[in-house]
Every structure is written in structure tokens, then in C-alpha cells.
Amino acid sequence: MKIALANDHAGYALKEEVRELLQNEGHEVLDFGTYDEEACDLPDFIYPASLAVAEGKAERGIFIDGVGYGSAMIANKIYGVSAAVCQDTFCAELARSHSNTNVLCIGGKIIGSALALEIVKVWMNTEFLGDIEKYKRRVDKVNDIAEKHLKKI
Ligand SMILES: O=C(CO)[C@H](O)[C@H](O)COP(=O)(O)O
User: Fold this and answer.
1) ipTM of the complex as predicted
2) pTM for the full predicted model
3) What is the overall mean pLDDT for the chain?
4) Residue 153 confidence (pLDDT)
């Protein structure tokens, strides 16, 4: 799969580990930066990476900052992006199987890298249970809200 990675200074170290994991598992990584730990502004990196997911240049995105929610706030403003913050593998599994997210947000300051890499593996390898009517119906309702309130790109 082609994966967009993006991060701020607080997510840089973990992003490097996530990139290595993804490449070792055969994925192609599009790295939108930032590329070091110098303080920066999260939207400058998450916005272009979110656009890449929305425009189909990447199938999914993994965004990493200090605690995760800032990345999710930005990503979820973009039509076609559905982002969840996950701090454990159960959340990561449901973020795919129930909610069909295409962006995973994690916080480099709040979970260790061993857990973060497990979260990435579970999220990457879990399919959406779209053949179960209640999950499809709920995701369709979320998408209907986006149709009404987010600008299509
Ligand atoms: O977690 C974050 C957003 O969700 C950011 O990484 C955090 O706000 C950065 O803060 P600072 O500039 O003080 O390092």
C-alpha cells in the first residue's frame, strides 16, 4: 500500500520507526515531513499529507504528533479523510473494522514505540467489516455528514 506519513517535531522520532516498519512490510511511504525535531507547526505537514490521502495519491495516512488529537483535528477537516486517534490496539482494530478510517493518528509523547508499532500493525492489517449492515450504515451516515458540510476537493 502507498502510505502518507506526516508529523511535527514531537512525532519525528516515532515517525522514523513507523517508516522503517512500513517499508519492512513492503509498503511504499510518502513522507511529508517534518524531517527533524526543530519546533514547527503541525498543520504545515498534516494538511498536505491529508490532501494526498483525499486525492488518492496515498491509500492511507499515518500522522504522528505529541498526543495525536491535533493531527486528527486537521485531517478530519478534509473531505475524504476519516482519522482516528488510537492509544491501544483494540481502538486501532475498531478504527478499521467498525469505522473504516483511512488515517491513523498517534502521539509520540504518550505511548512507547513498541506499543505504537503494534497499533500501526493492527490498523494496517484490519479490514473494514462493510458487509455487516450496522457498520456500513453508520459509516454511510458519517459520509453523508461530510457530503453536506465539507467542501469536496
Ligand atoms: O501533540 C500535539 C498536537 O496534538 C503537538 O505535538 C503539540 O501541541 C506540540 O507542542 P509543543 O510545540 O509545545 O512541543
Assistant:
1) 0.97
2) 0.98
3) 98
4) 82
65 lines ligand 1 (CB under 6 A): yes
Q: Whose CA is nearest to atom 1 of ligand 1?
A: 66
DSSP string, 2-70: EEEEEE-GGGHHHHHHHHHHHHHTT-EEEE----SSS---THHHHHHHHHHHHTTSSSEEEEEESSSHH
Which residue in this structure is represented by grid cell 525535531? 37
pLDDT tens-digit profile of 130-145?
A: 999 999 999 999 999 9
Dist. CA 140–CA 56, nearest whole Å: 19
Q: Which domains does the chain have, with CATH numbers?
A: 2-149 (3.40.1400.10)
C-beta 45 within 6 A of ligand 1: no
The rounded distance, in Å, linking the Cα atoms of 84 and 91 is 9
